[in-house]
Amino acid sequence: MSSATPLPLAAEEFLAWMLSEKGRSANTLAAYRRDLRQYVSWLDERGSDVLSVRHRDLVTFVGERRAGAGAPSSVARQLAAIRMFHRYLAIEGLRVDDPTAELDGVKVPAGIPKPLSEEQVTSVLDAIVGHDPTDVRDRALLELLYATGARISEAVGLSIGDLDVDERLVRLYGKGSKERIVPFGSSAADALGDWFSTNGRVHLVPDRWKKRVDADAVFLNTRGGRLSRQAAWTVVKKYGRLAGVADDLSPHVLRHSCATHLLDHGADLRVVQEMLGHVSISTTQIYTRVSQERLFDVYRSAHPRAMLVP
Questions:
Q1: Which of 24, 90, 114, 150 has the highest count of CB atoms within 10 angstroms of its CB?
Q2: Contact by Cβ (8 Å): 145, 255
Q3: Which residue segments constitute the domains of the chain, with CATH numbers given?
């Protein structure tokens, strides 16, 4: 099935349901669409479809995907989309059974995030040495990302009304449009204050807004529009290169680093969960593993009797 071939009506209705009833984001729905398109194409090649596929067909499909070049996480994500789709078909009465009900899951190796050290974060932020409006913007963006642990999509989606620089608070809209209020410190407040002064944002404001909604955007590009997620990624990677940590840095690594450094300095796990917008505490607990490993590394390298050979 080519990318131009439409999905079956049932699949389109499922995606619309996921948007309106479940509040899934545009990025999530785009991923579901790709996964379902591949699945439907595979069925079509075998003379089957979503209303007639059987359990043993799905076992074959998952087996082929596992044996292919796809990462386990990609296979697991696709299987999750297919499961939800078939549950929807059963709920809506389009099928009397759910062929995925007894299907084994795909195990994904638990990955431990690799945060930057505090010194490396400082090096990245110190790499922003210019005073042009874009430099002022970049400093404000990176300081805010590290200060709050915000996702890159949350940061570029900010409107001016979401920020209270005086009280050092920002309102972030996470997955499923869930809202949370997150504090930030003096370094981020200073950088944002500079961005909103005569040194920064005002120089990127166009004579006429191309899109009315861009007038409220916190972060602007050089053409006077809202800074895109891709452009923000480029900003982060730029200063990673200048600081010599390009291979280790991404917006998500700054989020990892924020969480890990908070826990290193004694923050409560529940507070970090709320700050990052994690639905489950188990998602946040992975950072405690990182902190423990760093603690053990420091102990082994620093304690005079840690590595004594008997």
A1: 150
A2: yes
A3: 9-91 (1.10.150.130), 118-301 (1.10.443.10)
